[in-house]
Amino acid sequence: MSQYRALWISLTVLLFIGALLWYRLSPKEIEVIVAPVERGAVEKVVANTRAGTLKACRQAHLSPAIDGQLSILAVKKGDKVEQDQLLLELWNKDLIAEKQLAASET
């Protein structure tokens, strides 16, 4: 008899935990504000050609406009970056030398 009692207590506890998890993990209700329809002037028109959810882009593929060898790679895969942060630099010592030479000739 005590085995059945332990089984019922175990099942009750499992059902309680399952109900609690279901309640906590179920999607919450969306709050809706209802307003009466009225006539009035159109102040702004917004066109939505696609419905869906917008998610922030968390990665970017870099493709420099010119070919060259990397001189500096300032970030690694998975690093968080900030706006205007240097990500990479191409080897450009030859271009700097040409610029200095042109500046010295003038």
What this model shows, in words?
The protein is mainly α and 106 residues long. 35% of the residues lie in helices and 7% in strands. The protein has two helices and two strands; from the N terminus they run αββα. It has helices at residues 2-25, 93-105; strands at 70-73, 88-90. The chain has a two-stranded antiparallel ribbon with strand order 1-2.
Overall radius of gyration:
32 Å
Q: Give the termini distance in whole angstroms.
A: 105 Å
Task: Give start-end ranges of low-pLDDT stretches.
Answer: none
Q: What is the SS-derived class? A: mainly alpha
| Discrete helix count | 2
The largest sheet is: 2 strands, antiparallel
Topology:
Elements: H1 2-25, E1 70-73, E2 88-90, H2 93-105
Antiparallel strand pairs: 1-2
In short:
By secondary structure, the protein is mostly helical. The protein contains two helices and two strands; from the N terminus they run αββα.
